[in-house]
Amino acid sequence: MSDALNLRRLNAGDYGALVELWTAAGLPYKPHGRDSRSAFEHQLTLPQIAFFGLFDHDRIIGTSLVTHDGRKGWINRVAVHPDYRRRGLAIRLIRESEQWLVSCGIGIFACLIEGYNDTSRATFKAAGYELFEGVTYFTRRVDPDV
Ligand SMILES: CC(C)(COP(=O)(O)OP(=O)(O)OC[C@H]1O[C@@H](n2cnc3c(N)ncnc32)[C@H](O)[C@@H]1OP(=O)(O)O)[C@@H](O)C(=O)NCCC(=O)NCCS
Questions:
Q1: pLDDT at residue 4, as a whole number
Q2: What's the sign of the alpha-carbon dihedral 29, 69, 10, 25?
């Protein structure tokens, strides 16, 4: 691994590598819904969304997807390739994501974590996030693949 990893916003040409990373990281995704190539390309055009990629030379080894609704910021899909874990890279992605949110005028950062994902809980806890007990997540979908 190089000492100098580069972080940049992703572009449409990164889609294939992004999906490979999600797969290698074991992060489920919706290939026919919000994580499809066309959905990704559309999301890249939206001002309230930023995709970040961390690169070792040309190889993408970490990502985050950051969104906001004008009130709160959401840090989603933080993933680090298994070969690069426990080196503080998820924390770096979280901090870069937070900086972008601050630049958008957002001062509250939040993350939804599935109940099984103890690693992700430990990571956000290490990043200083406080568990908010007593919230139940409800959704309704126009289609199960969305
Ligand atoms: C969660 C994930 C992004 C963490 O990436 P990472 O780069 O290894 O995390 P970091 O090195 O920045 O870890 C920072 C701290 O988080 C905690 N942590 C991270 N992984 C941990 C683990 N497996 N067990 C316990 N604590 C862990 C530790 O406190 C760690 O600090 P330390 O290494 O000094 O002990 C990575 O494991 C991953 O890609 N998982 C699969 C994808 C996923 O589930 N993403 C979350 C979606 S919400």
A1: 85
A2: negative
CA neighbor of 97 nearest in space, from 76, 128, 122: 76
CATH topology of domain 6-126: Aminopeptidase (3.40.630)
Domain range annotation of the chain: 6-126
| Ligand 1 center to 85 CA (angstroms) | 7
User: Are the C-beta atoms of 42 and 70 separated by less than 8 Å?
Assistant: no
Q: Report pLDDT digits (tens) over 78-110.
A: 999 999 999 999 999 999 999 999 999 999 999
Q: Is the pLDDT of residue 2 over 60?
A: no
Q: Whose CA is nearest to atom 35 of ligand 1?
A: 86
Cβ neighbours of residue 90 under 8 Å, at least 6 residues apart? 62, 78, 80, 123, 127
Compute the distance between CA of residue 50 and CA of residue 7 in angstroms, rounded to an integer: 12
Residue in 123, 124, 129, 131 to alter for ligand 1 test, most ligand atoms within 8 A of Cβ:
123
Tell which atom from ligand 1 comes closest to the C-alpha of 79: 39
| pLDDT for the residue 103 | 98
